[in-house]
Every structure is written in C-alpha cells, then in structure tokens.
Amino acid sequence: MAQMPTARLRRLAREMRRLRSESGLTREDVATRTSVNEATLYRLEAAKGRPQRRTLMALLDAYGVDDAKREAILTLSTQASEQGWLRPYHADLPDEYVGYISFEAEARTVRNYESLFVPGLLQTKDYAQAVVRGVLPTATVKEVGQRVQARVERQTVFAKATPLELWAILDEAALRRVVGSPEIMAEQLHHLAEIAAEPYVTLQVIPFSAGAHAGMPGSFVLMDFPDPGDPALVYIDSMAGDLFLEADEDIRRYDHIFDHLRALALSPDESASLIATLVREIS
C-alpha cells in the first residue's frame, strides 16, 4: 500500500515549501544546486513521501537553514511516517480511506455534514454493516467485516484523554431513511440521542421544512488539528472518488458552507426533540 500522508508529513511538506520560497529558489534552481531532482522535490513538497535524510540535508544546506531549525526539521521528518491510528488489516482498505482514518485520529475537531447517512463516528455496528452492504453490494463478507470493524474502531477517538470534538449536521433524510430494518434504525436513533448529550458532540438536524440548502450537493468533512503548523483539511467522499482539499480558498469555502448550514439547522435541543419523535414513530 502506498504511503498515505499524515498530519506531520503535511507539516513537513508545508515547511519545506516555505523554506524554498524564502530562499528565492525555484525547483529547477534546487535541482541544479543539489543532487535532488525536480520529481523528488515535488513529491516532498506535496506530502507524497518522506524524504531520505541525505536528501533533506542537501535541501536544508541549499536553503541556508540554521542549526536549531535544521534539528527541528529532521525530528519532524523522523516522525512524519507515524500514522495516528493503524491496524494490520488496513492494508486491504482503500488508500484514501486509510489516510482519512489517520487524519481523523490526529484531528482536534471534526465538522461533518451528512445528507444521506448517519456520520461514521456516530454509527452503531449494525447500522454500519447495513450501510456498507447497501453501498457496496459486490463486497465480500471479509471486505464488509473490515469496513465495519474500521468504522467502529474509529470511534475510539472519543475515548482519548482529550476526546475529539465532533460537530455533526445531518439532513433529516439521513434520520428518516430506514437502513437495515426498523429495529436497526431504532437502535441507531437511540444511540444518536445518547451520544448527542456528551460534551464532545454537537448534533444538529436540517429539517425538510428548510427546503433547498447549500449542503444538498453532497457531504463533506472539515478537520482541524492541535498543532497550528498543521493546516485544516477538507475531505469529500463521492462516487467519483475520495478527495482531500487543503488550499486556503477551499477551506474558507467549506467553512462558509458549514456556518450557513449550522445557522439553517435546528438547534441541538430542537434536533434532540426531533430525534426523540422519530424514535417513538419507529419503535
């Protein structure tokens, strides 16, 4: 499996881009002055791989980096391959999903809008299994089991000393669609009602009465990280493939969309009341 980026690898890439920019050198200049070719430099600056120590030393020499900063960069490079959350069976999961799992495990906050599903971090095991079977009808029993296991284990982010902070906004359609069976859906709704009461979870629902809204084109996730050197990240999962966005303009755009949806949605208390109503209807 190809190496997926981690928060630390992204931080290293960002720092190396900054150092080259401050030195006034183009990638072509760097390739001329060092033994590092442009393709290798591109991979490093795009967080597509951790550089070898000799490559990093050559670049730091070319950029005129002082000893203190050099030591910090070398330490960051050593840590860059460390996945925040990884299991042996992840080798059988799609690379993009494994990358998302790692980012999620390192994140400080996650803002998630879902139009059709209950967010993965809030799914019960039976609901998750029904979702995977429905979305991936050709998946083998083993593949379904791996997906479900990964989804359930992801929820350990709430058990950390400092739990992940999740702000989830759901379209009412995600709550009314009966996934699996009425019994599975009732259990899922009960679970939502319980976990929404936890201090680390904020849950809002956009009611059908809100009409058309900015979230209708599709779901997305916004992640922020504890270290200020780690830029925010947007994750989009679609039938066309998974996509990670980190450009400032993309972050601002999805920030704005999430804020719009948050203002449009029912308050957390009103959302809890709606969920309670749905529980009574389906039970």
Concise account of the structure shown:
The chain has 283 residues and is an alpha/beta fold.
Task: Describe this protein's structure.
The termini are far apart. Strands 3-2-1-4-5-6 form a 6-stranded mixed β-sheet, sandwiched between helices. It is elongated and about 70 Å long. The chain has 12 helices and 6 strands. The longest helix is centred in the first third of the chain and has 17 residues, at 7-23. It is an alpha/beta fold and 283 residues long.
Form type: elongated
- Describe the sheet with the most strands: 6 strands, mixed
Structural class: alpha/beta
Helix content: 40-55%
Number of helices: 12
Number of beta-strand segments: 6
Gyration radius (Cα, Å) is 22 Å
Query: What is the percentage of strand-forming residues?
Result: 5-15%
Looking at this protein, list some descriptive labels.
about 280 residues; alpha/beta; elongated; six-stranded mixed sheet
Question: Would you spell out the secondary-structure blueprint of this structure?
Answer:
Elements: H1 7-23, H2 27-33, H3 38-45, H4 53-62, H5 67-79, H6 95-106, E1 109-114, H7 125-135, H8 141-154, E2 165-171, H9 172-176, H10 182-195, E3 201-206, E4 220-224, E5 233-238, E6 241-245, H11 248-264, H12 268-282
Parallel strand pairs: 1-2, 2-3
Antiparallel strand pairs: 1-4, 4-5, 5-6
